[in-house]
Design goal:
The complex is a heterodimer of chains A (264) and B (409). Chain A is an alpha/beta fold and 264 residues long. Chain A has helices at residues 4-15, 31-40, 63-74, 79-90, 104-110, 112-122, 141-146, 164-169, 191-202, 218-227, 235-242, 247-262; strands at residues 19-25, 48-52, 98-102, 126-129, 150-151, 153-155, 175-178, 209-212, 230-233. The chains are: A alpha/beta (264), B alpha/beta (409). The A-B interface holds A 55-60, 62-63, 66, 70, 73, 78-80, 103-110, 130-136, 153-160, 163, 167, 178, 181-183, 186 and B 16, 24-34, 172-173, 178-179, 182, 185-186, 189-192, 289-293, 295, 298, 300, 302-306.
Chain lengths: 264, 409
């Protein structure tokens, strides 16, 4: 099984480029604007789109992303709405990978089997579900792989060498290294710390390692891209949307971050 | 299910932290190594006699255990049916059952070398108990409390501050108990090295539901012995109120295999368990989902978004329930009912008038159910209800509900 994510990394490798991954919340500030943003992301240089699935209780997120989720929910966004958005995006773009990122309960509530079939059909390529560690792999991770979706795992500074193989075991697509102990939008980690950690993970897997949490500027995206296979920016982009910036300004900010990540 | 498991209801959770399909470890990777470490340390402490010796000493000399088992004679006469006993956990230091568990977790935290304790609190009872034990041991204490609760529970906020704790008003989400728990988890994920998260109820990721139950089981263990001494037999019915469910689990657990004892948990029915969702009855009005590290019955909408609970009692105001209760509910070992705010208020007043005990609003729910069933039962039927907290904290709320002007407080 080869997903759009696998194909994208093959392409990046062939071109000798690092990946730039963006995160935005589906339905923030409303469904139409949010769709307009994601439609513009590939042209802005985004290699992989992470799309947030709003949840009332995002325990691993800071205030910026929690508020984005609240705006989306108040605007009526649902899991079905997110799937519809992806379907609309796929009408114009059949190659940029989309990773759905969120928490388990909305998926569990819909029913895992039904969700996986719908997600695959809508054009979602991978899942990051924050509150499903390897210990709960039977819930969604294993069925997702069987359904042809990548299940992307987070590795963190608390994932020691002993635990790392457990974390990597059922991971596919890429590994998302959370560069800090903390929530999204928190202070940046030192690049000096990130490099050896990425090397430690890469020694244990052939999968690409992408780094996120605490990256807010093109310079920082470049520093991270130098030591990893790519960088994720979420809170800083969501912050632009929260500030009410028009879509073209949001996209030009995204383009500056992508240029940073692609400059190395 | 294999035969050996069918013979006991007390073997759970399994190695994955499950009670049947409920429980588990639904946490982010950053926290996973921490809860595995906690589990290992707790397993070690649990079988270490010196750990329990320290607990027993402090339970006796600091908390004031054993709490009395009290025959409520006038209430029994008034209701004219079953014989009513109260397990008086409201007489504990800090006025509720919460300290039973806090003591256990703090002693464990000290064994683990943790120097900073965090907790979430709703009504403030768990926060006060945590701040109290932290003061006793000279530990730094940070309590997360919904901004709305900070406002309506001002006396407990002041108590915590007197005890040296930092109280952080939580404004994220809707600023309620579940948001306070979210923020406590965020703190823990940020301060992983020195911090111990002291959860106040039988919920959260494994091993918390089992660990908190084990610490609270002192309630049921004492009640069982005291009932033998008083009546020469076990009670016929045991009853306790449920928010997250720690006082109830503490009373129920030692009785789970005594199949002649019927077990009743009382949820907060708020304004009534209907589709307006103005209640906190997760079992009677919710469905299974995943929140705060465990699978359990939750108040949620059709899309899996979590709903706010509603109850006159801030201590029951939580959209979930401990996973072991969800399991006991599904297998039918315990029965779960709900009581409205109005019924709880009536029980509150009756308890004051008939027994000279001002109960907290939480056990008032349990008492209200006792009032419903006792008159229909024979006089040789023995009920034991858990008087898990005293009502001093609630007098302003009750005064308001009864239309009594208390002035500034």
């Amino acid at each position: 099984m080869k997903t759009r994510i696998d194909a994208k990394f093959e392409q990046l490798k062939a071109e000798g480029r690092k990946a730039f991954v963006s995160y935005t919340m589906a339905g923030d500030p409303d469904a139409a604007t949010s769709l307009e943003v994601i439609k513009g992301l590939p042209a802005a240089g985004v290699d992989i789109i992470e799309l947030g699935l709003p949840f009332t209780d995002p325990m691993a997120d800071g205030p910026t992303i929690q508020l984005a989720g609240q705006r989306a929910l108040e605007g009526g966004m649902t899991l079905q709405g997110v799937l519809d958005m992806v379907r609309a995006f796929r009408e114009q773009d059949d190659s940029t990978p989309i990773v759905l990122m969120g928490y388990y309960n909305p998926i569990y509530s819909r029913g895992v089997e039904r969700f996986l079939a719908d997600a695959k059909d809508a054009g979602i390529d991978g899942l990051i579900v924050v509150d499903l560690p390897p210990e709960e792999d039977d819930e969604l991770c294993v069925p997702a792989q069987a359904a042809g979706l990548n299940f992307i795992r987070l590795a963190t500074p608390t994932t020691d060498d002993k635990r790392l193989p457990t974390v990597l075991q059922n991971t596919s697509g890429f590994v998302y290294y959370v560069s800090i102990t903390g929530i999204t939008g928190a202070a940046a980690a030192e690049a000096g710390d990130v490099g050896p950690e990425v090397a430690r993970i890469k020694a244990a897997t052939d999968l690409p390692v992408i780094v996120g949490f605490g990256i807010r500027t093109p310079e920082r995206a470049a520093e991270i891209a130098r030591v990893a296979d790519g960088a994720v920016v979420g809170t800083a982009i969501v912050g632009e949307i929260a500030a009410g910036k028009p879509v073209d300004e949001v996209l030009s900010f995204v383009a500056s971050l992508a240029d940073g990540a692609h400059s190395v | 299910m294999p035969d050996d498991l069918m013979n006991s209801y007390k073997t759970g959770p399994d190695e994955d932290g499950r009670f049947g399909d409920f429980g588990g470890r639904f946490v982010s990777e950053t926290l996973m190594p921490l809860i595995l470490e906690l589990e290992a340390q707790y397993e070690n402490a649990k079988t270490d006699q010196s750990f329990w010796d320290e607990m027993d000493f402090l339970w006796k000399h600091y908390v004031g255990r054993p709490s009395p088992l009290y025959f409520a004679e006038r209430l029994t006469e008034r209701l004219g049916g079953a014989k009513i006993y109260m397990k008086r956990d409201e007489l504990n230091h800090t006025g509720a059952h919460k300290i039973n568990n806090v003591l256990g977790q703090i002693i464990l935290a000290r064994r683990m070398g943790k120097t900073r304790i965090i907790a979430e609190t709703g009504a403030g009872q768990h926060g006060v108990a945590t701040a109290t034990v932290c003061a006793k041991f000279g530990l730094k204490c940070v309590v997360y409390m919904g901004a709305h609760d900070v406002e309506r529970q001002a006396p407990n906020v002041f108590r915590m501050r007197l005890l040296g704790a930092e109280v952080v008003p939580v404004t994220s989400g809707r600023g309620t108990l579940k948001d306070a728990m979210n923020d406590a988890l965020r703190d823990w994920v940020t301060n992983v090295r020195d911090t111990f998260y002291c959860i106040g109820t039988v919920a959260g990721p494994h091993p918390y539901p089992a660990m908190v139950r084990d610490f609270q089981a002192i309630i049921g263990k004492e009640a069982k012995e005291q009932m033998q001494a008083a009546e020469g037999r076990l009670p016929d019915t045991i009853i306790a109120a449920i928010g997250g469910g720690s006082n109830a689990m503490g009373l129920f657990f030692p009785f789970l295999d005594d199949k002649e004892v019927s077990i009743i948990g009382v949820e907060a029915g708020g304004k009534g368990v209907n589709d307006k969702m103005e209640h906190c009855a997760s079992l009677t009005g919710g469905r299974p989902g995943v929140l705060h590290g465990n699978r359990t019955y939750l108040l949620q909408d059709d899309d899996g978004q979590i709903l706010e609970g509603f109850s006159i009692s801030a201590g029951l105001d939580y959209p979930g329930i401990g996973p072991e209760h969800s399991w006991l509910h599904d297998i039918g070992r315990a029965q779960y009912v709900s009581i409205t705010d109005r019924e709880a208020l009536e029980a509150f007043q009756l308890c004051c008038e008939m027994e000279g005990i001002i109960p907290a609003l939480e056990p008032s729910h349990a008492l209200a159910h006792v009032m419903k069933i006792a008159p229909e039962l024979p006089s040789d039927h023995i009920i034991c209800m858990n008087m898990c907290g005293r009502g001093d904290k609630d007098i302003f709320t009750v005064a308001r509900a009864l239309g009594f002007e208390m002035g500034e407080h």
